[in-house]
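Protocol step 4 of 5: obtain the predicted structure for the target chain.
Materials: sequence only (see below). No template structures provided, no constraints applied. The aim of this step is simply to have a reference model before the mutagenesis design in step 5. Sequence pasted as it appears in the construct record:
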Amino acid sequence: MSLTDIHPRLPPELLHLIVDNLHQHIPSLKACSLASRVFLTPTRSHLFHEINLEQDGLPKAFSEVLSTSPEIGSCVRILRIIDQGKDRGTTGMLLKEAQPLAHVLSKTTRIIEFMLMAVTEWSIIPDALRISLCNTFRQPTLKSAGLYALLHVPFSLFRWFTNLKDLRLTIHSNVDAEDRSDEINGNAPAISTKLDTLVIFDPAPEPVINFLLRPETTLDFSCLRKFTVTCTKNSTPTLTSILSTCSSTLQCLELINSHELPCGLDLSDFSSLTEVFFSAFVDYEPQSQNELFSSLVDLPSCIEVIRMRLTIIDFDRLRQLNFSYIDDCLSSEDVPCVRQVKFHVTFFNSAIPISDDDVKRYFEDVLATLSKKGILTIVPEHRMR
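Step 4 output (structure tokens):
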């Protein structure tokens, strides 16, 4: 009698279901991987699903793992490289561990989400690592990409996305119109990529937006469903250039550092827009009681959710805001579909110490005065002293 007769094997589908239910419990996954060889492959797909290389030495260690077990590379679906170095010299992880990072990227060929954070000039990244980074962005499985603080990114890096849906660029993600990187000037035709989500956190987003709109990048915004961007009152021409291409598909618009719509920005034709978000730092005396909320009357009638984050310099400034103006906006016929209004309030308690109980009572009093309290929520968040 064979061992198979004594210990019948479970169907592979059942083994995978068992392991899938342990996805959030790393110790159990590790125990299963050691218990039996049949658990090894399914547990690896969970244990190595998400890899964060954010400390010196981790790239080298993971590179050694991939050298001995290259099959693990196909298990990595989310890869984040976070260089904590704050200078732009030669001390960052991208420069000190360029070789193991390049090896890791060459072995992880099924990435669906990739993030690179490094305050580093693109041109000083070693050639081998730049080539590996470019190949990662070319992967057909890549759905989400984030570039954080990387300086002077060339055009070509944005030409090779094939199935990208989510693109995120943050502060100082400067771009260059001229390619200085021979390794990405290939002869293969660039492929037009239709984005679902675009996020730009930059104190001066206009150059980045104008860059992304250039034909050389081959990015298509006609199917954009969510757009998050820092802006000012004077950002209208630049924003309109993107928004005009997605007026029938955009569902969520998030405007950061703007307490009202940029001047002249017309959203009346956005038939799919159901959610808007404003973020403002209130460090001035409002010229009128309704100044902060005046943008609400300019929204299209299909809006269902309005979110606003207010950062107040101190508690006294918060008291000066007239939340009751929201009643008039919501009672008008201009916004008949609104079913939720949510204010996130963060403020600096720099003058007079105030307890959490005082904050809670204040917002309870505010809500008590509003007739639309059924759909209005005010959320006091962390306070900075």
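Step 4 remarks: DSSP finds 13 helices and 16 strands in the chain. The mean pLDDT is 77.
Proceed to step 5.
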